[in-house]
What does this fold into?
Amino acid sequence: MELELKKDLASNWFKLLQNSFCNDIEKFEKNKLKFKSTSWKRSQKLDEGGGEFRILKGGKVFEKVGVNFSKVYGKFPKKFQKNIPGASKDPRFWASGISVVMHMNNPHIPAMHFNTRFISTTFEWFGGGMDVTPAINDLNEKKIFHNNLKKMCDRHNKNYYKKYKKWCDEYFFLPHRKEPRGIGGIFFDYKKENFHNDFKFVRDVGVTFQSIFNSIINKKINKKWSSKEKEAQYIKRGRYAEFNLLYDRGTKFGLQTGGNVEGILMSLPPLAKWK
It folds into this structure.
């Protein structure tokens, strides 16, 4: 399959997913609150692509949620080339992806994160994953979440769940706190075995995340909470912010490749506390 066709298939899927996610989210807000959409360009002078980030704030269900799409291309800065596979030989790149971060009003509903991407340098690969960060532990929810991920992974390869769960556990860890960010999920990168199979898996990751966030929210949308539980959520959000600013690859990649700053930092919670 030609590279340009691969790029079109991937970016069109990510855009479709952005629209589908946003429709579901607005339904939870009974369509009374809409996303604010902002389009951006990587360069004001050159044709280097861009994207669209959508943010919804102050809802009854979602305190803040961002759903970002991007399709960018150009050349990696010299200092960055050695850190990206295939870029040291040729600095030109193309990248498209979708990222979602949900910070919920109700502290019983966990923060949820998802992203998938397709990157091309002198070779191409998929990356992405999803994870959940509860402020209030729910062992049953954790079990259901991981069972759903295992079922999805097993449809493609019986080794994926164990491998990608381990990668997620290692990645979403705060070394300075010596604690995980949340209850894990799956994380994968440099996935380039076979485009057809890899793209099928990436699509399934997106569809599964959509099913999971709908299910979790529907179960807990009417659950009452206390001021103590809300306080626990603010503290947990502080940990979330620490990880994203200190360790997150996507944040670093976006900032170092001329991405939209507001869109990149949309993952940060609207309110957080430290003690």
